[in-house]
Amino acid sequence: MPQNRITDDGQSDRPRRELPLSLVIHQLSLKIDAQGRALVARHSDLTLPQWRVIRVIGLEAPDGSTALRKLMGFDKSQFSKTVNQLRARGLLTVSAHPEDGRQLQLSLTEAGRAVLDRLGPVLDARNDLFLQALAPEELKVIRSALSKLGRAAEITDFSKGDDE
Amino acid sequence: MPQNRITDDGQSDRPRRELPLSLVIHQLSLKIDAQGRALVARHSDLTLPQWRVIRVIGLEAPDGSTALRKLMGFDKSQFSKTVNQLRARGLLTVSAHPEDGRQLQLSLTEAGRAVLDRLGPVLDARNDLFLQALAPEELKVIRSALSKLGRAAEITDFSKGDDE
DNA sequence: CGAATAAGGTTGACTTGTCCACCAAATCGG
DNA sequence: CCGATTTGGTGGACAAGTCAACCTTATTCG
């Protein structure tokens, strides 16, 4: 067995430096998205971003496109394209916002609600598997930890010794 | 103030259903990557994937391209392209693997090490900010939690009632 | 009140990541 | 030993996300 063998699960005998948390989270996100893509593809012909828009509209009725987009953390451009894809497929209706001419009012069509009803339980079950995979002390702090990391990731002014 | 106002930071007065963990992690990953991209761009003309390859080679000397690729969690195709970009820029040398004709042996050039020396501290400082943002009980379990989620995301057989 | 600024959506171009076919090398099993 | 299977890298096509310019609408400020 050669020295310095690296296994995928990090369970190698010799301690090695940990990967940066940013890379770990990136890898995790790619795995979760790949799994989500496979599940959504198995049950529909939606893309993952399209499913996400439907899913979050179903979680709560947004009072405008801006609130929905910001809640979902989508880029303006990507949100626009995904919403238009869903409108073109007949899963979403788009109308003018009653108070703000810049915004859109979005709602699911019956076909959109049907997709939500069909896929919702599947993806909820996967989410439950994620939660069940965690120990109680992990489950207790995971969301607050991710939230704090998110805020730390929004810092753009690294004035601490940066040669800007 | 209209009812059902949604704020970005989730600190709204009324409780609302939480976003699925998968979407939260996806959003977090995008924010972290955007910040990383900005930092890397400020200090070099590398892309984030290119920086990541250099960074992980610097963390430990891999015994072949396969071990490095798997450690980093890169797609085969993306890894190949990024390695070739780095070779073309003179930051990486690529040679034949001594034992396995399928694999490559990768090492940083002097220019590659110089980039690593210049950017390493910047990105390490950011990683430290992430760790410092977390409370002790969050820091204690974050890696094990992410690791468990990663394993749960590798499940491909959802035979529990799926209409396959 | 009007100019300046900011916010929201669209579109095209680009970056990053995925998928797949192909080929070569390694491994496995009869 | 040899055929079958698996693994690793390449390259093209495509999906997902980002960036920036532009236009419209709303807000801010003097």
UniProtKB/TrEMBL annotation, chains A, B:
Residues 18-151 form the HTH marR-type domain. It comes from Pararhodobacter marinus. GO terms for molecular function: DNA-binding transcription factor activity. InterPro entries: HTH_MarR-typ, MarR/SlyA-like, WH-like_DNA-bd_sf, WH_DNA-bd_sf. PANTHER family: TRANSCRIPTIONAL REGULATOR (PTHR33164:SF95), TRANSCRIPTIONAL REGULATOR, MARR FAMILY (PTHR33164). This is MarR family transcriptional regulator. One of its GO terms (biological process) is response to stress.
